[in-house]
Amino acid sequence: MLRYVTTELQASRIGKELLTATEPDEARQTDSVMTPLNLSRRWEGMANGTWPRITYAAAIKKLQDAVSCNKAVFEFEPSFATGLQAEHEKFLAQDVGRGAPVFVTDYPRSQKPFYMAPSSQDDSNNNAAPTVACFDLLVPEICELVGGSM
Predict the structure, then answer these.
(1) Residues whose CB falls within 8 Å of the CB of residue 120, separated by 6 or more in sequence, listed in order
(2) Which of 15, 40, 69, 96 is the most exposed place for a label (fewest CB within 10 A)?
(3) Each residue's pLDDT tens digit, 54-93
(4) Distance of CA 112 to CAs 18, 40, 82, Å?
(5) Which element (helix H / strand E) includes 109?
């Protein structure tokens, strides 16, 4: 559905108007998400790019590694127990998704509702905490767009 909507938006009159309306001026920063180039890249990633998947445990590890290598600074320390904050989701969408959406799967059971089924995969997250069969779809600049579970 997201690919279809994005493809139709790109080809539509409204999509072309959005690109024209977001042309940079002196008041806007050139690295803004709303520049025509950035908006076009986002639409291209949504419509045609691959959408990588990463487990929650691997996402936390990637965030912690980014902090320890001075590649990122977060207001909230990434940890398995505390959950992903918007700043973490934005980083993952940019770093893992390379500007395209990214699926984060297998969240800790303690962070999700009781009705979610346990993960069926052998999640080697090096934590004793059980995980559940779920996902969040992270989109650049927007963060979580949709989530689902078994």
Answers:
(1) 133
(2) 69
(3) 999 999 999 999 999 999 999 999 999 889 999 999 999 9
(4) 37, 34, 12
(5) none
Instruction: Give Cβ neighbours of residue 95 (< 8 Å, ≥ 6 apart).
Output: 62, 66
- Joined together, the tokens standing for residue 134 give 């779920």
**Residue type at position 6:** T
Length of the chain: 150
Tokens read off for 139: 């989109």
- Nearest to 117, CA basis, from 129, 127, 103, 131: 131
- The answer to whether 87 touches 74, Cβ cutoff 8 Å, is yes
Cα–Cα–Cα angle for 148, 149, 150, rounded to 5 degrees:
145
3-state secondary structure of 40: helix
pTM for this entry: 0.80
At 33, is the pLDDT very low, low, confident or very high (cuts 50, 70, 90)?
A: low
Contacts of 35 (CB under 8 A, 6+ apart): 22, 23, 24, 28
Structure tokens given for 58? 């691997």
Report the amino acid identity of residue 61: K
